[in-house]
Amino acid sequence: MIDLYQSQRAMRNMRRAALQRGVIAILDVGTSKIACLVLQFDGPEEPREDGLGSLAGQSQFRVIGAATTRSRGVRFGEIETIGETERAIRTAVQAAQKMAQTRVDHVIATFSGARPRSYGLAGEVELTDGQVTEHDIARALAACELPDFGAGREVLHAQPVNFAIDHRTGLNDPRGHVGNRLAVDMHLLTIDARVVQNLLYCINRCDLEIAGLASSAYVSGLSSLVEDEQELGAACIDLGGGSTGISIFYKKHMIFADSVRLGGDHVTSDISKGLQISMAMAERIKTIHGGVHATGMDDREMIEIGADSGDWEKDRRQISRTELIGIMRPRVEEILEEARAMLDAAGFDQLPSQQIVLTGGASQVPGLDMLATRILGQNVRFGRPLRVRGLPQAATGPAFSSAVGLCLFAANPQDEWWDFEIPAERYPVRSLRRAMKWFRDNW
């Protein structure tokens, strides 16, 4: 655990240093695209009253550079071909730097996939002075016994989501409160270590320093859910190209995250195989004519399929839109049903509000709202990322939810376990010295 604690604190310190210099880059490594945003920070804000990010500080920012490129070498949100992904990252970062007319040395990255798993931990300590200090919070966090989440998995997020003093619970920031016992509930998110190791290796080969990591499911929820939804309980389903991220928020904290290893690219692949056309042509047909809800008019709407086989008859085929919908709908239903099963397993139906927000590039399929309502429930809406200063119009769609959410994560971070000075003699019971070895190896 010492390795984890020190490496995450080092990244937080690096992020603070980059923010003081005024410029930092945001990197969203997805299966369909790689997006890079260059942020310019104007200075610190006053701390918020609810305690979110109060220790790390908050900053006002604006986007001064933005670029996207086609993702290569990434499958299921995980890097498979390092060389191709490195070139794609270089292309996106250089284009964003050119637009911003400045050089960036530090990036904060987000990624999907990596098989995230959530754990709920609890710790409790006696208050020595009768009033809660940061040292008491650190002792309470250190009292949480870590689960045995297995070899090859590492901790990505460790956020305190609720504090209780004696019989008073629901506190976001207990500092200064008076009582006898302090209890904390912490949400721990673990991921496959090899996925992040490959990502760090790619970023380091691009002559960039990593100043932070975040789960795509987490940051998509930050940008797509409004404040009331985060407070009362809501789920964000980020329909990406290679995977679908699922996160649940309650009391303005993420309490669960998972992913489905299916996405929009699998729909494209089904069209390509069903119609025996190239992936590029299948993506074009899906974008222009796709849908998941057939009507009587779709039998008469014919779609011309062009190809380059040299056979005139085969190259000038036509299909009805109903046939296309018949190919797309089963895969979309499968993705939504997998997401529904994960929400049920997480106890989502126990939350006061059961709002579900669909976002991501694959959520723009026509007719998805009716299909999602039938499978997921009545409280379903489409989400777009919050507006941030300087963001180009082309980057305001659902496909950029994770990129915009990562901007909010960089500027307004929530307190995490490594933001507190944990006493050396009070490290958690279960040793994680092996746990973040890849972090140490990549510095």
TrEMBL record:
Localization? Cell membrane
The membrane topology of this protein is:
Peripheral membrane protein
What GO terms fall under cellular component here? cell division site; cytoplasmic side of plasma membrane
From which domain of life does this come?
Bacteria
Ranges where the SHS2 domain occurs: 24-224
For whether the record's keyword set contains Cell division, the answer is yes
- Which Pfam families does the record cross-reference, listed alphabetically? FtsA, SHS2_FTSA
The transmembrane segments are none
Q: Which GO terms describe its biological process?
A: FtsZ-dependent cytokinesis
Keywords (A to Z) from UniProt: Cell cycle, Cell division, Cell membrane, Membrane
Q: What is its main location?
A: membrane
Q: Which family does the record claim for this protein?
A: Belongs to the FtsA/MreB family.
Family annotation (HAMAP family): FtsA
User: What function is annotated for this protein?
Assistant: Cell division protein that is involved in the assembly of the Z ring. May serve as a membrane anchor for the Z ring.
How this chain assembles, per its entry, is: Self-interacts. Interacts with FtsZ.
Q: What is the recorded name of this protein? A: Cell division protein FtsA
The organism named in the record is Albidovulum inexpectatum
